[in-house]
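Hello everyone,

My group is preparing for a crystallization screen and wants a predicted model to guide construct design. The compound we'll soak is flavin mononucleotide. Before spending weeks at the bench, it would help to have a computed complex in hand. I've included the protein sequence and the ligand's SMILES below. Output in structure-token form would be ideal because that's what our pipeline reads.
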Amino acid sequence: MAKVGVFFGTDTGNTRRIAKDIVTKLGSAIAAKPVNVRNAVVADMLAYDTLILGVPTYGEGQLPGLSTGNATASWEEFLPTLEGQDFSGKKVAIYGLGNQKSYPEEFVNAAFYLYERFKQCGATIIGAWDTEGYHFKASKAVVDNRFVGLVLDQENQKDLTPERLDAWLKELAATWD
Ligand SMILES: Cc1cc2nc3c(=O)[nH]c(=O)nc-3n(C[C@H](O)[C@H](O)[C@H](O)COP(=O)(O)O)c2cc1C
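Reply:
Good plan to model first. Here are the tokens for the complex, ready for your pipeline.
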């Protein structure tokens, strides 16, 4: 069985496309086929030692889900199901999508909500990412001067995504080599 589980939420498909790129880059022996979190239950995640979780930000700095007008349930509906679950010993890496030009005051906030929740469940969060090269005013996803995970902006910095992804995956791979 693959050792890395890849789960994502999405409304317009960007976060799903990145999830597929991640699996292509890591290879199917390492990473499992990406699963939309609306179809997942907690036990599906607990089957892996390492998780890569993708989340776009919607509304005004909120989790994607029905209350932010997404077409389907997403992380907003999934996160409450983590209440009381034990992720100790699990590594969790988060990638967040957002738009720094249109939402400079709440850029990729949703990544923070995943970080906070999985940390509360005892997971070790890996894959913090430098804020250099992004132009925004405020983001909850900055903790100790770094993003809590990889940040991608497909609207304004799409050309930088492949190299950011490669560098981040290389860092992650060093934790399971
Ligand atoms: C209605 C709407 C609200 C958004 N709100 C935010 C936001 O608060 N912060 C942010 O960084 N990006 C925001 N975005 C940008 C999305 O996160 C970005 O387009 C992302 O790539 C969408 O991912 P998806 O295609 O997987 O749904 C918003 C986009 C839309 C359409």
